Amino acid sequence: MKTYDVVVIGGSAAGIVAAATVRQTYPDKKVVVIRKESKVLVPCGIPYTVKTVGDVDKNLIADTAVTGKGADLIIDEVIEIIPDEKKVLLRSGEEIAYDKLILATGSKPVFPPIPGRDLDGVFTVPKDYDVVKELKSRIEKAENIVIVGGGFIGVEFSDEISALGKKVTIVEMLPHVLGKAFDPEFAEMAEEILKEKGVSIKTGELVTEIAGEGGKVKEVVLKSGQRIPADLVILSIGYRPNADLAKKAGIPVGTFGGIIVDNLGKTLVKDIYAVGDCAENRCSLTPNGLCPMLASVATATARRAALNLYNIKALPTAVFGAFGFSTVVGGRTFAAVGLTETAARELGYDIIVGKFETLDTHPGSVPGSMKQIVKLIALAKTGHIIGAQLTGGKSVGELVNVLATAVTAGMNASELAFTQVATHPLLTAAPTVYPITMAAMSILHQM
Amino acid sequence: MKTYDVVVIGGSAAGIVAAATVRQTYPDKKVVVIRKESKVLVPCGIPYTVKTVGDVDKNLIADTAVTGKGADLIIDEVIEIIPDEKKVLLRSGEEIAYDKLILATGSKPVFPPIPGRDLDGVFTVPKDYDVVKELKSRIEKAENIVIVGGGFIGVEFSDEISALGKKVTIVEMLPHVLGKAFDPEFAEMAEEILKEKGVSIKTGELVTEIAGEGGKVKEVVLKSGQRIPADLVILSIGYRPNADLAKKAGIPVGTFGGIIVDNLGKTLVKDIYAVGDCAENRCSLTPNGLCPMLASVATATARRAALNLYNIKALPTAVFGAFGFSTVVGGRTFAAVGLTETAARELGYDIIVGKFETLDTHPGSVPGSMKQIVKLIALAKTGHIIGAQLTGGKSVGELVNVLATAVTAGMNASELAFTQVATHPLLTAAPTVYPITMAAMSILHQM
Fold first, then answer.
1. Containing H/E element for A201?
2. Which residue of A has its CA nearest to B327?
3. What is the pLDDT of residues B385-430, one digit of tens each?
4. In this predicted complex, what is the ipTM?
5. Are B337 and B324 a contacting pair, CB within 8 Å?
6. Does A263 touch chain B (CB under 8 A)?
7. Of A103, A138, A142, A110, which is closest to residue A126 (Cα–Cα)?
8. Contact B326/A428, CB-based, under 8 Å?
9. Among residues 217-256 of chain B, which lie with CB inside 8 Å of chain A?
10. What is the tens place of the pLDDT at every residue in B70-123?
């Protein structure tokens, strides 16, 4: 039986970061990552294999992300964890003993019990090389594609697929696509862009059946009775924690299906940790108090657990998981942090909203200049920022992180308004109207 | 005699923001901006009138930035301030009475006493429409252009001018261009890019004479004896506060030539304020404790003074003026916040440096991906971030503001490492190797 100080199960973002961070923090520890996939996809890059990146083989994380840090890599499947004996069993029959075990088993696509879901041509989007490769080749051959679920993965797929000239329809249950992350005015902007690109959007709609012919998908039937022709259906309804191994080993799982962990990733079983999508990570500013399943959350929780694995090196910040998030729709970036206005009002928070619109270069005559909007949500009494939504060009991808940082630091509108930022004609809005400053000033004026 | 509650002298960034902020904060106050320029340039956009924007008339700030906020605008020159009578005299002979006076008189280019500086073809870069228009037309006609001073304005001009196919030489006294804002390894990257574009760089060199023929510039003579042919010379050595009016009125001026102000912009004379370049604004993280002359600093000080003009509405943040700064050299962005490693060591600070290099998309196969480097400078004992330097693509223009915000909030390496940021394949580095996180982790590992 091989013995390691630290065994990590799972080789995607969280697993890689956990292993690398343990190696860097505790260089004398022997670490192994065990994963069943022969190749690891960049998870967030999956929709972009369709066109922008254009090749599934260009969307891989190299094994050196693990082995280059001095950790071992075993490609095999863990079929059982035996906590009492502090060992794991592999499909090959091998056993591996651990001192500390880190579960980074990720998530699995929700596969709703819609009649017809097993027809040929119906796909979910697992983080699996072979499935994504097959999906890409089917997208290329398809003419009518229906995407069920208008969250960011569905929207990103629709954006890429429509650029191939295919007919794409998104079916979304909520009143808007991206409706969980954004308030209606931002979601509507995204919908407008998709429609201009030729994407058909059916919101407030449910799929009741996927109808087929000769075992192959033929159309999607909606609750309203509408039938949409389809030779390919992509189900992107969401993901659920992959906690099967943990459950089998008696490691407690929470109400939402993830492994129960504390803020350092410790499960309720001694010397076993869980990080990333498989765990019920607590975020400060989400309606249910749980972090969404994002690679950025996964890596942050993995770092936090690994750094403190043998010694408390650095405690979590007060506001963990402001839930920074960004996506691109038809070349326009949409991003968010923390609570939306809708969610904050539903939770009964007393809030003030500050909003500002400007251009993302100065002067606006710089080629490629785009409209940039920042919306801030603050607590009415203290001015503390609890959420933000932004849209603009590519620079919004990092502009949102200014707000992720401000929220994490517990800044209020006054502190944010007086933060002296860098501005440049080609790169940012003008200093006279920097939109975060102006939205924060607007909150101050309402206090 | 006309009477206003608030008179603002100067109509560039600081004056505009002061007037607009007073109007928004105290809507019952009568406000006027008095400026002598008929047209106001976007100051930071001046180098880009050469090519990228391509037209001085496309680089103007509209008067509605003032009048649209309900403030009056008078185009005339204030020739005297009479504090005892609380009024100003205009060149037209008119007198304007004030309750509060805000000086936003800006800065003037340094015009060093080099022999030959008055020859035809020798320019400084004032924020003056007519001069910039003339300079642009002379650049278009010139063949050999020498830029004296390799700070950001000199570098940005050289970048734009070289794109027109002209021969450009930068002469810089310091060992490197951009040598005040960046440590040598970043400055050297910028120099390499400029050299590849054909810009000739003479560092550690002084200009001893500008030689002419028939009253026109012909060549620039260096201390080393070298003579560089030139039909146009641009002096971009720096700016000094324009405090002439203040001095004449007995408003005290500091050691560095700017009007002495407190943290709310109050001068030592009752009811007179000074904001922007004309004042000695205090920044927390600069070697001499003074803010550099940047539009972002100017607008921040203007907002701070205006908001608190009649009532303390919001006090300055603990760390004001982390001195965020960014520029673009040959399509690569360079940006900085706070102290450089060089400056921190010269000041005797006990520091730790964390550095990380990655790509600014994930996977790196996304078209247009660029190398991104983040360097963090932290106090060795506490881990507090006191400076940062960054380079990469356009997204670095906002990435630097994540650090401006972190420094302003007084974050340490641990808090920064655990800040959960938004990442996206097309917009940012991968969450597994987000460079701010990784550089902060590197500091933690060295503590």
1. strand A200-203
2. A424
3. 999 999 999 999 999 999 999 999 999 999 999 999 999 999 999 9
4. 0.94
5. yes
6. no
7. A110
8. yes
9. none
10. 999 999 999 999 999 999 999 999 999 999 999 999 999 999 999 999 999 999
